[in-house]
Design goal:
Layout: H1 10-34, H2 40-54, E1 58-59, E2 65-66, H3 71-78, H4 80-98, H5 106-131, H6 136-165, H7 172-204
Antiparallel strand pairs: 1-2
Helix pairs in contact: 1-4, 1-5, 2-3, 2-4, 3-4, 3-5, 3-6, 3-7, 4-5, 5-6, 6-7
C-alpha cells in the first residue's frame, strides 16, 4: 500500500499533500474533543503498535504479502481524529527513517491510510454499529468488518490517484483488479487483527475504547466533532 517516489506524478502528489495537510490540521483541532487526559498515553501506544505491526508482513496469495494498515484500529481505540494523526506520524517515520513509502508520496500515503483508512473507516464503523446490537460484541464485529472494508477503500483511493497521475504504463483495469483483489485478502487479515485487538482492550479497559464509550456508564459523553456514519 505504501506508494514509492515517482509512481504518481508531481501535480497529483502535490494535491494529495495539500489535502493531507488540511485533513491533519482539522484533526489536530479536534483531538482535545475526543481524547480524555487519562487516555492520552494510549494514543502513543496505538501509534507504536501500528508502527511495529506494519513492519510485519503476512502471506496473502501468489507470492504477495500484506501488513496491517491500522486506520480503523487507531480510530476505534482513540478516536478518528487522533487515530488519523497517529497513522500519519507512523507513515512519516517510516518514510523518513526506513524509506518505506517515498517522501514525495507521503501526502498520497496519508490520504489513503490516514484519511481514508482512519477517518473514512470510522464512518463505516459507526454505520455498522448503528446496524448491530449495542453490545461489546457488536463493537468488536463492527471494528473488524470496518477495518477490512477500509483496506479496500484505501486500495481504491490509490487506483483513483493512479488514474489521475500514474507514471507507469499499466492498464487501469489491470491495476484496479490487482489492487482490489489483493487488498480484499489483506482486508481479511486486517479485520481479524483489528477485532482481536479491540476485543482484548475491551476485556480489560473498555472505558479506554473511544468507539465503545456509549457502553460504559461512567464514561463522560463524547463531545461533537467526530465523523459519524449514521
Amino acid at each position: 500500500m505504501h506508494i514509492p517516489d515517482g509512481f504518481i506524478n508531481a501535480p497529483v502528489s502535490i494535491a494529495a499533500g495539500a489535502a493531507s495537510l488540511g485533513a491533519l490540521a482539522a484533526s489536530a483541532r479536534r483531538v482535545s474533543e475526543e481524547l480524555a487526559e487519562r487516555a492520552a498515553p494510549l494514543a502513543g501506544l496505538v501509534a507504536a503498535f501500528v508502527f511495529a505491526a506494519q513492519m510485519l508482513n503476512f502471506p496473502v496469495a501468489a507470492g504477495t504479502s500484506g501488513h496491517l494498515l491500522g486506520g480503523v484500529l487507531a480510530a476505534v481505540l482513540v478516536g478518528p481524529w487522533t487515530g488519523a494523526i497517529c497513522i500519519a506520524l507512523v507513515l512519516f517515520v517510516q518514510a523518513l527513517v526506513f524509506a518505506d513509502g517515498g517522501l514525495s508520496a507521503l501526502g498520497l500515503n496519508v490520504v489513503n491510510m490516514a484519511v481514508i483508512g482512519a477517518l473514512g473507516g470510522y464512518v463505516v464503523f459507526r454505520a455498522l454499529r448503528g446496524a448491530l446490537p449495542r453490545t461489546r460484541s457488536g463493537v468488536v464485529v463492527a471494528s473488524g468488518v470496518a477495518a477490512g472494508i477500509s483496506v479496500v477503500l484505501a486500495a481504491i483511493g490509490f487506483w483513483v490517484e493512479y488514474a489521475l497521475g500514474g507514471t507507469v504504463g499499466v492498464d487501469l483495469g489491470t491495476v484496479f483488479g490487482a489492487m482490489v483483489g489483493v487488498h480484499l485478502l489483506i482486508g481479511i487479515g486486517e479485520g481479524v487483527i483489528t477485532a482481536l485487538t479491540v476485543g482484548a482492550v475491551m476485556s480489560v479497559r473498555p472505558d479506554l475504547v473511544h468507539g465503545a464509550r456509549d457502553l460504559v456508564p461512567s464514561a463522560a459523553p463524547a463531545r461533537s466533532g467526530a465523523p459519524s456514519g449514521g
